[in-house]
Specification:
Blueprint (H helix, E strand, L loop, with lengths): L12 E3 L6 E6 L3 H4 L3 E6 L5 E11 L3 E8 L14 H13 L4 H18 L7 H11 L4 H18 L6 H8 L2 H24 L3 H25 L1
Antiparallel strand pairs: 1-2, 2-3, 3-4, 4-5
Length: about 230
């Protein structure tokens, strides 16, 4: 989906939870921190510091283990700019609890998807019906429909566990934030950018092309009526 690198304890560089820039992180060190359960990571881009709590155990494969406690956004990427506000609210709440409960976060992202589908012109009552309607009217590419179904199925498993193995669920759930952002980019941001480019062309040429397209549609509809 993108090159986002999630924040991770003791990782040299990742996407900053404050400015979202992929940047080098300066982890504090020295005798005063050696006996502390906490560490700070300072972003070289925005200069802000995240606070992390060290776990008592050590993973034999990765070494010291810890989790970010401030800011309380977990390891999720930032929501994209064009995400509707009510969708973003659920997205950020899911991010704040995801490290503590993958199922809780996935359930909230399922709710975010339901609200997003309403912004895309559907009823927002039944997720599967709305996705099938989007697939039927051809308003979105097939790949976006697949992404929406991935979110729907994973979110359903969060509230009705048993249809996916725990390992598969965790793997997919971690990507649900990327998937929500992907849908917003494809369904909202890219069409808006194309509309903005189109409106920069001369108005007379646009209207001429639109009138010709309308005439062609009328001819096509008339031919279909005659055949029927």
């Amino acid at each position: 989906m993108n090159n986002y690198v999630a924040p991770k304890f003791n990782l040299e560089a990742f996407n900053c939870p404050f400015c979202n820039t992929y940047a080098y992180m300066a982890w504090n060190s020295g005798s005063e921190w050696d006996f502390s359960n906490y560490r700070e990571a300072k972003c070289y881009k925005c200069k802000k510091k995240s606070l992390w709590r060290k776990e008592m155990h050590v993973d034999p494969l990765v070494g010291a283990v810890g989790f970010m406690i401030y800011p309380d956004t977990g390891n999720a990427p930032f929501p994209v700019e064009d995400m509707p506000e009510d969708v973003k609210a659920d997205y950020m709440e899911a991010a704040s609890i995801f490290s503590k409960s993958h199922r809780g976060g996935a359930a909230l992202l399922r709710l975010a998807l339901q609200k997003l589908l309403k912004h895309l012109g559907k009823e927002g009552k039944n997720i599967n019906d709305d996705i099938r309607a989007l697939a039927g009217d051809g308003s979105l590419p097939a790949k976006v429909i697949q992404v929406a179904d991935t979110l729907r199925i994973t979110g359903n498993n969060a509230v009705h566990p048993g249809t996916m193995s725990d390992e598969d669920f965790d793997d997919v759930a971690e990507k649900m934030f990327d998937l929500i952002n992907f849908i917003v980019r494809k369904a909202i941001t890219e069409p808006k950018e194309l509309d903005e480019l189109y409106l920069k062309t001369p108005e007379s040429a646009r209207k001429s092309a639109e009138m010709q397209d309308e005439k062609n549609r009328d001819k096509s509809e008339n031919r279909n009526v005659v055949k029927d």
